[in-house]
């Protein structure tokens, strides 16, 4: 019954890289098509929701959507013959009509992998993704009311439901303290610097068995350079219309240099607790 | 009793549909679909082939629940029973239009497709096909501003008759998000009604402009909103088939209602008779005027030049 493994993260933290890696492991012909990652959906995407409930979600109110999301994922979990890897950017939150009921259906959940990234680097990557200035995205990371998708009080036909993010600190902390199921936290920086052991540990956690050679091959297939090259050649359907490239820099420890002293201090003051917890505090 | 035509079929209803013009009883009406308010069964008469949280169905029955709004039981291609829980009839009828009608069609071996249509001359249309939220309706109303009247919104029924592909319009309601019709010349907030109270998606009746007769399909235009630029491309017959299959309305019902072979026959037949194109745009609302102008120039005008 509990067949869902959430691939969770604050946006622009390495979630797509991790999903690409899983797809590369499954690719039989040593070629990964980034526009056909065959992942098992997005928690806040409307497509799975509408396919399961057979309803136009644009006809639903916000509290109905929240109520029915658990029905959808419980149904998918109960029908699945193998583990489902589902991307999620929502903070681990509670539904608006019941402060004890988590938005994410725990009864459908097996485990989660949460990818965390240095917030200074997230600022830069997010600015590219949403086509904003670094100044805007630095402020975005500090906002308790930050969200992705459609604002719940002003919908206009987007493909994703409202996803509460909160501050970077609130997002990370929500996944650290609330879930009743096992969550493996991995740092983007470790995915980058110690790729093999970091990905191998993640696979052990989610109980996927692949040889060391298969892991190395999948890592090679999903190197930043190869993902970027494919995007340059064929485009990437997950890219926002405001970004030139989805796979933008993929570097680590560069974001801070793009920020002013005031912006750095502001981010540190709002996000100190989780920055310290995950080794980003200097 | 009230008589209506949806998708070219006659519906005999025990209640009046708000905003839809009714028709007089005609002795020639054969095999109408009966629509009535009643108590829906707890389960299907025959074993379900598919069971989901809100629905269960097999080849001849669909039972659907829209919590707190209504239950719907559609059977044998000739009966729709509605058990309402909401007093707002517009709210209750949203699922009638979007699901119950499609179920009746499929039970009668008729295939609806996700497409809006505009008339390009007195007897031909082009169909703008895409999944939800890509911009079918908005593109249609901007083409309407260029002189191509709306034929149908969101869905049409497709048939091959005497070697030609014909479409029948669904019903005289156009659905638009507020931010879509705000930019148009022909639609204003006061003329529409919210699909449910408080929603910013509105319905607009177009009884006066509604076409009951089948019209020949001149071209299929599959809309895409994930491009970096505005462009159109012709489709091969193979790609036309795949686009048609992806845009069968309620495509997920085809297997559970045992209609896959029927679907295959229809789309392969269409692919031999009608040209297909993709029309691509960036996901940016401000491009609709230019997008519609491009479809006019690259597809409609060229078609007319070649065929008229």
What does this protein look like?
- The complex is a heterodimer of chains A (282) and B (308).
- Chain A is of the alpha/beta class.
- Chain A has helices at 15-26, 46-53, 62-79, 119-130, 134-140, 168-177, 188-193, 195-205, 212-221, 224-234, 261-277; strands spanning 4-9, 84-88, 109-116, 147-148, 163-164, 183-187.
- Chain A has one domain (4-277): Rossmann fold (3-Layer(aba) Sandwich).
- Chain A has eleven helices and six strands.
- In chain A, the strands form two sheets. In chain A, strands 2-1-3-6 form a four-stranded parallel β-sheet, sandwiched between helices. In chain A, strands 4-5 form a two-stranded antiparallel ribbon.
- In chain A, helix 2 (46-53) packs across helix 3 and helix 4 (119-130) packs across helix 5 (134-140).
- By secondary structure, chain B is an alpha+beta fold.
- Chain B folds into two domains: 2-108, no CATH class; 112-307, Rossmann fold (3-Layer(aba) Sandwich), CATH 3.40.50.
- Chain B is 26% helix and 32% strand.
- Chain B has seven helices and 19 strands.
- In chain B, strands 1-2-3-8-7-6-5-4 form an eight-stranded mixed β-sheet, covered by helices on one side. In chain B, strands 9-10-17-13-12 form a five-stranded mixed β-barrel, surrounded by five helices.
- In chain B, a hairpin with a 4-residue loop joins strand 9 (111-119) and strand 10.
- The model of chain B has no long low-confidence stretch (mean pLDDT 94).
- The chains are: A alpha/beta (282), B alpha+beta (308).
- Chain A binds chain B through residues 46, 50-56, 58-59, 61, 64, 68, 71-72, 75, 154-159, 235, 237, 241, and chain B through 52-55, 64, 66-67, 94-95, 98-99, 132-133, 177-180, 195-196, 198-201, 226, 228, 250, 252, 282-284.
């Amino acid at each position: 019954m509990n067949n869902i493994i959430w691939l969770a993260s604050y946006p622009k933290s390495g979630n797509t890289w991790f999903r690409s890696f899983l797809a590369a492991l499954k690719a039989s012909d040593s070629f990964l098509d980034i526009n056909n990652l065959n992942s098992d959906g997005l928690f806040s995407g409307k497509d799975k929701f509408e396919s399961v409930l057979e309803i136009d979600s644009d006809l639903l109110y916000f509290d109905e959507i929240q109520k029915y999301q658990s029905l959808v994922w419980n149904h998918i979990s109960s029908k699945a013959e193998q583990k489902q890897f589902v991307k999620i950017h929502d903070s681990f939150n509670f539904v608006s009509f019941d402060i004890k009921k988590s938005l994410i259906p725990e009864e459908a959940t097996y485990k989660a992998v949460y990818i965390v990234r240095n917030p200074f680097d997230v600022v830069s990557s997010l600015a590219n993704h949403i086509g904003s200035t670094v100044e805007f995205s630095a402020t975005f990371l500090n906002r308790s009311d930050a969200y992705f998708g459609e604002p719940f009080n002003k919908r206009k036909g987007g493909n994703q439901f409202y996803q509460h993010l909160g501050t970077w600190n609130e997002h990370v902390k929500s996944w650290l303290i609330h879930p009743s199921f096992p969550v493996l936290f991995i740092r983007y920086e470790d995915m980058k610097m110690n790729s093999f052991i970091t990905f191998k540990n993640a696979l052990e956690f989610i109980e996927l068995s692949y040889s060391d050679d298969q892991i190395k091959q999948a890592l090679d297939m999903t190197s930043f350079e190869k993902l970027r090259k494919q995007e340059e050649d064929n485009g990437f359907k997950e890219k926002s219309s405001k970004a030139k490239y989805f796979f933008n820099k993929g570097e680590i420890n560069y974001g801070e240099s793009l920020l002013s002293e005031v912006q750095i201090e502001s981010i540190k003051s709002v996000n100190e607790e989780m920055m310290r917890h995950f080794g980003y505090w200097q | 009793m009230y008589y209506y035509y949806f998708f070219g079929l006659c519906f005999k209803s025990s209640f009046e549909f708000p905003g839809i013009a009714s028709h007089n009883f005609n002795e020639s009406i054969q095999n109408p679909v009966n629509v009535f308010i009643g108590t829906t069964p707890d389960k299907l008469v025959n074993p379900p082939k598919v069971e989901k949280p809100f629905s269960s169905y097999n080849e001849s029955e669909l039972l659907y629940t829209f919590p707190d709004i209504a239950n719907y039981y559609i059977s044998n291609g000739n009966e729709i029973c509605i058990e309402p829980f909401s007093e707002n009839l517009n709210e209750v009828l949203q699922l009638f239009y979007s699901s119950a009608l499609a179920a009746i069609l499929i039970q009668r071996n008729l295939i609806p497709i996700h497409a809006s249509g505009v008339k390009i001359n007195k007897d031909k249309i082009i169909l703008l096909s895409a999944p939800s939220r890509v911009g079918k309706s908005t593109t249609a109303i901007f083409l309407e501003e260029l002189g191509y009247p709306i034929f149908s919104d969101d869905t049409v029924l497709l048939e091959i008759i005497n070697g030609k592909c014909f479409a029948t319009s669904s019903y005289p309601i156009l659905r638009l998000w507020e931010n879509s019709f705000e930019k148009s010349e022909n639609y204003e907030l006061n003329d529409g009604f919210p699909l449910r109270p408080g929603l910013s998606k509105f319905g607009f009746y177009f009884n006066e402009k509604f076409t009951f007769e089948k019209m020949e399909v001149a071209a299929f235009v599959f809309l895409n909103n994930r491009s970096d630029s505005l462009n159109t491309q012709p489709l091969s017959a193979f790609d036309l088939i795949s686009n048609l299959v992806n845009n069968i309305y309620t495509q997920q019902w085809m297997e559970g209602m045992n209609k896959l072979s029927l679907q295959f026959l229809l789309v392969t037949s269409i692919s031999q008779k009608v040209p297909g194109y993709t029309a691509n745009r960036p996901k940016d609302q401000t491009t609709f005027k230019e997008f519609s102008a491009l479809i006019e120039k690259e597809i409609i005008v060229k078609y007319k030049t070649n065929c008229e």
